[in-house]
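Why does this matter for the project? Reviewers at the last site visit asked to see concrete outputs rather than summary tables. In response, this paragraph embeds two records directly. Each consists of the residue sequence and, immediately after it, the corresponding structure tokens. Nothing has been edited or filtered.
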Amino acid sequence: MLRYAITGGEGAGTCAAMRARRWAEEGVEYVQLREKQMAAGEMVRLAEWMVGVFAEHGGKTKLLVNGRADVAVAAGADGVHLTSVAGATGICWRWQGRAGCERVVPYA
């Protein structure tokens, strides 16, 4: 069974940060950072922190940033959840340099 958690869009990131540590401890495989109202700089800082927490817990939990490849690259996240607004739907992961992704996994 694959476990996939999604942050709730709380805005301030406080709840997402508290949950991130718990999700890593519980071995959740993927966390989608979905904070649509958060400014890019704040989202980068939160994503960087989450990447660090996941690394501290063995790196098994992967971080996907909702629709913001710029934030994902800046924060060192594992991938991007591509929204329909971004022009595609799926998950882009395994960065090729800083310009794109190696694989897109579409949703059915």
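We now turn to the second protein, recorded in exactly the same manner.
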Amino acid sequence: MSWTRPTLRAVADTNPTPGSDNTARLKAAVAKRALWGTPGDFTRCHAFLVSKGVGDSKADRICARWHIEANGYATGDKRNH
């Protein structure tokens, strides 16, 4: 029987625990790409998370929460561009 080293892949934690290192790293990676506070920030966040293996509806929820944290208002708010 031979042993092979497991392959490490850069995938998003699809069930991030708030406050965990994985969540913080993922949040930082999204922040770099989403450019919070600019038009299209939610769409860029969503596309990035989906590309990392997060499901569509879960990506919606995560990006909505992070949008509020970063900008101070929801995507449907009148202050959103």
